[in-house]
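Our platform keeps sequence and structure together, in a single record for each protein. Nothing more is needed to write down the fold, since each code stands for a local backbone conformation. An entry from our holdings is shown next, in its original layout:
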Amino acid sequence: MTTFYIIRHGQSEANAKGILQGSQIDTPLTELGRSQAQVTLSKLGTDNFDAIYASPLLRAAQTATIIGGSDKTITFDPRLKEYDYGTWDGEIEADIWQKYPQYFDEHHNLLPNSWVDSKGDTYLEVKSRLESFFDEVIARHPDDSVLVVSHGFTIKLILDYILNIGNLVNISEPTNAGITKVKITKDTKTVIYFNR
């Protein structure tokens, strides 16, 4: 059984400014984001992981380095990058919510088919990449503990891959530096906890 600790990156500069930040926007952690990663480190410890994987985007890479330690090997995998919001990447979130209300619920959860107007990723494209990632990591680490540092919407899609939820509005994005623990065998996928 492979145990995954899936962490959302700490607060980034774009998060702090209310900017929609997908795979095209690459901002560093804020001071608060670095502190959030330190708190997550204190919850997890550093010696618990046989492998560390992270999105290559700066905010996730910095979070992985804080939690994993600068002396640990971190494998940066582009399949863990944030969902691509297409032409919406880099825009003020509130402006996008107002301009395209048909793609958001009352809690500003992104609804399906936004890619029609944004020209960004489809859910299926991202979930296919994530399935490939998890298949490879499980084959490589069948009985290990693995730290994964990624992004809010991508983690929602990871949960959809694991639980086959289908309706992503039923899941909130994890908070910055939130921890989700998952155990996967060749026959089962179990969420132990979400967003602690």
